[in-house]
């Protein structure tokens, strides 16, 4: 499945919940999405807080939450996430990191 199709399905889900409505108790604004993304990353980190090996199911669930918020934030901000990733990979090819 392409990233664009995943984004479309994510938008359909959010729309079905009414979260794009002006009076939604969960306003889907870039600021709120960035905060939600950080919260989900925190939940991902929590899996590793006391264990080096969370269950694959728990890890998959938290990674999916992170991915969905990332897709939505990029989409609502007018960012082509697929192209941004490709551009970043290309820039990183020429980047040097200090030796540890």
Could you name the key traits of this structure?
100 residues; mainly alpha; Helix Hairpins; 4 helices; 0% strand; globular
Provide an overview of this structure.
With 100 residues, the protein is mainly alpha-helical. The protein has a domain at 30-89: Helix Hairpins. It has four helices and no strands. It has helices at 3-16, 30-49, 56-76, 81-93. α1 (3-16) packs across α3 and α2 runs antiparallel to α3. The longest helix is centred in the middle third of the chain and has 21 residues, at 56-76. The model has no long low-confidence stretch (mean pLDDT 95).
What's the helix and strand layout?
Blueprint: H1 3-16, H2 30-49, H3 56-76, H4 81-93
CATH-defined superfamily of the domain at 30-89: MazG-like
Name given to the CATH architecture of the domain at 30-89: Orthogonal Bundle
Q: What series of H and E elements makes up the topology?
A: HHHH
Count of alpha/pi helices:
4
Mean pLDDT: 95
Q: Radius of gyration, Cα only, in angstroms?
A: 16 Å
Strand content: under 5%
Q: Helix/strand-derived class?
A: mainly alpha
Shape field: globular
* CATH fold-type name of the domain at 30-89: Helix Hairpins
Share of residues in helices: 55-70%
